[in-house]
TrEMBL record:
GO terms for biological process: cilium assembly; microtubule-based process; multicellular organismal-level homeostasis. It comes from Ceuthmochares aereus. Keywords: Coiled coil, Repeat, WD repeat. WD repeats lie at residues 9-43, 51-82, 93-134, 135-176, 177-218, 225-259, 260-292. It holds the Pfam family WD40. This is POC1 centriolar protein homolog A. The gene is Poc1a. May play an important role in centriole assembly and/or stability and ciliogenesis.
Length: 398
């Protein structure tokens, strides 16, 4: 079945730059050139939240894995962490010296990687909200940076026409992919962690194997590709292009499956939900659209199975070595699922509890951080008052 338009959100006052689903698909975050972050609720009766705090265009947004925080990056050179609730309180990170184009949480929710026009990629701790280190070998703006699913690697895409692969622990650049004929707008890891896909102004999408560092697939379009997102099964890729279309590529067959027309003007961003049954897109027409996937019923069972079996206690996603060979997922004949056994049920319950605890931690971190900010303000005010008092005393004595 063809993908179909499910919801349509209007409220931004300028081009939409970024979209992301929360884990439970109940909320969708979007960033826009209008300097705001919007949180849309998938239930029609709950109204959207508009978060104001950035002083300039918001270039990127992402939900934390638990869904209890939203990170955003802006042209005002800051990164903000928001609690996606009515209050919309946020704290700001400052370390970049130019526009922040990309924000991405590690899969354990502990680290954040950001990319900027200051030509650096920076890594932060989420809970202490501390800047850790910079990766600085790009010689032009960095448009996008992503952690690998296991958190060991970072990939970055730049206007210097390269895609760089970094080792997070040693902070070294392991490899540079230089096959792009233009700026590289977007890059992401395949869910297995074995390959990456990059989109560029040379109208192409390229898929590389990061173990052998070789080009696996090359899709030539006829317009600049602004954004891409892997389906959680790893079998499909959706792209957003300047010709206003969204395209769905079948990675197994290596061909274009669907071209979707919805936006008027360039489609700027696109993202699958964490289960893959929905995807969202944004455009310079100020609109956010949510689409029903519809074409992946068989894969969805796979995704849910791997997600259930892969909820390790430490939250790490194991790589699907058996099913993955150079980024191509081999269809297995479906065995009958004899119902979930008690161990699986316990594991799922444990995973849910852990996720809840992580979420509570996120909220606590944010609260403490906001309180610290207020305390600093109060201390500053107190200092001012004392200084003024001193001045008054001195002037009276003189």
């Amino acid at each position: 079945e063809d993908p179909s338009l499910e919801r349509h959100f209007k409220g931004h006052r300028d081009a939409v730059t970024s979209v992301d689903f929360s884990l439970n698909k109940k909320q969708l975050a979007s960033g826009s050139m209008d300097s705001s972050v919007m949180i849309w609720n998938m239930k029609p009766q709950i109204r959207a939240y508009r978060f104001v705090g950035h002083k300039d265009a918001v270039m990127c947004v992402q939900f934390s894995p638990s869904g209890h925080l939203v990170a955003s990056g802006s042209r005002d050179k800051t990164v903000r962490l928001w609690v996606p609730s009515v209050k919309g309180e946020s704290t700001a990170f400052k370390a970049h010296t130019a526009t922040v184009r990309s924000v991405h949480f590690s899969s354990d929710g502990q680290s954040l990687v950001t990319a900027s026009d200051d030509k650096t990629v920076k890594v932060w701790t989420v809970h202490r909200q501390k800047f850790l280190f910079s990766l600085s070998q790009h010689i032009n703006w960095v448009r996008c940076a992503r952690f690998s699913p296991d958190g060991r690697l970072i990939v970055s895409a730049s206007d210097d026409k390269t895609v760089k692969l970094w080792d997070k622990t040693s902070r070294e650049c392991i490899h540079s992919f230089c096959e792009h004929g233009g700026f590289v707008n977007h890059v992401d890891f395949h869910p297995s962690g074995t390959c990456i896909a990059a989109a560029g102004t040379d109208n192409t999408v390229k898929v590389w194997d990061v173990r052998m560092n070789r080009l696996l697939q090359h899709y030539q379009g006829n317009a600049v590709v602004n954004s891409l997102s892997f389906h959680p099964s790893g079998n499909y890729l959706v792209t957003a292009s300047n010709d206003s279309t969204l395209k769905i590529l079948d990675l197994l067959e290596g061909r274009l499956l669907y071209t979707l027309h919805g936006h008027q003007g360039p489609a700027t961003c696109v993202a699958f939900s964490r289960t893959g049954d929905l995807f969202a897109s944004g455009g310079s027409d100020e609109q956010v659209m949510v689409w029903k996937t519809n074409f992946d019923a068989a894969d969805r069972d796979d995704v849910l199975k791997t997600q259930k079996s892969s909820m390790n206690v430490d939250g790490a996603q194991p790589t699907l070595q058996s099913e993955m060979d150079c980024g191509v997922h081999v269809k297995k004949t479906k065995t009958q699922d004899p119902g979930r056994n008690p161990v699986q049920q316990e594991e799922t319950a444990l995973a849910n509890t852990l996720e809840h605890i992580m979420g509570q931690l996120d909220v606590l971190t944010q609260t403490v951080s906001i309180l610290e900010q207020r305390l600093t303000l109060t201390e500053d005010k107190l200092k001012e008052c004392l200084e003024n008092q001193q001045k008054i005393i001195q002037s009276k004595m003189s």
